[in-house]
Amino acid sequence: MNIWLILIFTVVSSLYALLKFKSTYWQQKGVPQLSDGVWGNIRRLTSIHNADLWQEVYDRFKGKSPLAGTYIYTRPFAVILDLDLVKHVLIKDFHSFTDRFTNPHSKDILNQHLFNADSTIWKGLRMKLTPTFTSGKMRFMFPSLVEVSQQYVETLQSELQEKSDGILEMYDWNGRFTTDVIGSVIFGIKTNSIRNPNAEFRQIGQKAFGADRPNIKWSLAKNMYMKYLKYVGIRRFNPILERFFLRIVNDTVLERERRNIHRNDFIDILIELKNQKDENGQPVLSLELVAAQLFVFFVAGFETSSSNMSYGLYELAKNPEKQDILRQEIVEVLKKHNNQLTYEAMMEMSYLDQVISETLRLHPALAILQRVCMEDYQVPDTDIVLEKGTAVAIPVQAIHYDPEIYENPSAFIPERFEHNEVQSRHPQSFLGFGDGPRNCIGLRFGRMQAKVGLISLISNFRFSVCHKTPQHLECSNYSFVLIPGKGVWLKVDKL
Fold first, then answer.
1. Is there a smaller number of Cβ atoms within 10 Å at the N or the C end of the chain?
2. What is the DSSP letter of 434?
């Protein structure tokens, strides 16, 4: 018995000593750190996105060092605090930070998408998929967006006729709109989410963004240690999502091939890649990789734009004078184009562009941009060396709320994004779509989708706050993406 007690004590003591040593990783490098002990900041992990943690590190150490250290469980993160260093990580020294995650591989088919992909497949995927989002392709897609937006307006008008108080939860409505847009222009499918909130595509989208309310600490642990957990069958994504997108591949991609259907859209590009061979004679994209790309373009395409639209409506409702300025611009530009919403008319709406950018500043899609050191990296003008494999976090939301960059940062002021104002700031002071070679590939499409949605809504309805509208919107704790946690309730009046 004594031998067993000694053995257990030795093991526990050794484990504690190891964890204690790992929790001083940044101190050993001479980097200021934020840590709660041997398990890193586990007590602070109250949300999957961890926005509060990144904000605390930024507030405590910004100006004292170009970077600071923190921990999620036992994994050290380098938090970049200096905008010049942000530029090095995202652009100048991109070759040293090409990957987003330290363990992108898992048994999940859907994990091998463009956002997650490591450098071995990312560059080829990015190069092949970029033509999907050129200006020419945007013009080609534009009429489909306008058609869906017209259905959206008609359905909202019908809904308001049945509601005496005119109060609607706009985050759900906007999600139904963007789901139908993605279904139409990306999949070539009518998803009917606007008229039917229980449509299959809509349910899949909700499931992908935390509708099942996962355990926060377990979800973060999976993200940190997937390279070990995958060996015991732990999966990153719900199998329901995997089965759905594999079925879409079979129902849509293979059906197009059988019937020789060409629509010059995103799926056609994926089919082309599936049928191309690499230098080893293997398909550039397998059916599983096709499913993964469809997955990421669906969830990213519908969610980021619906959140941006919803946050934008919320800010415009709280600032009716800004809403009036935007509505006046929309009306005047449309009048110049015979009251027809064309691609050219949309591109003339400069204040609308400012509204979307300011909304993204206040409500970015991600709290951080994550990168990984691909090699030992000497931080410029310091003695600090980031070791190969180190996780790097760029605190987007904290930068966007820095009062030294944006005066009165909590206020909604679209004029911040007038050309001269933008030119006066550091180019990395706004990271709404990321930056550098791994920025958001669909940023043009995302902005276009949000613009068409807002043009249709603001030109037909007035939005104002009501008793259900909170003073401050809370983000969901259960999603890595910063989405509204309790909806966006607004009073809607038909003009």
1. N
2. B
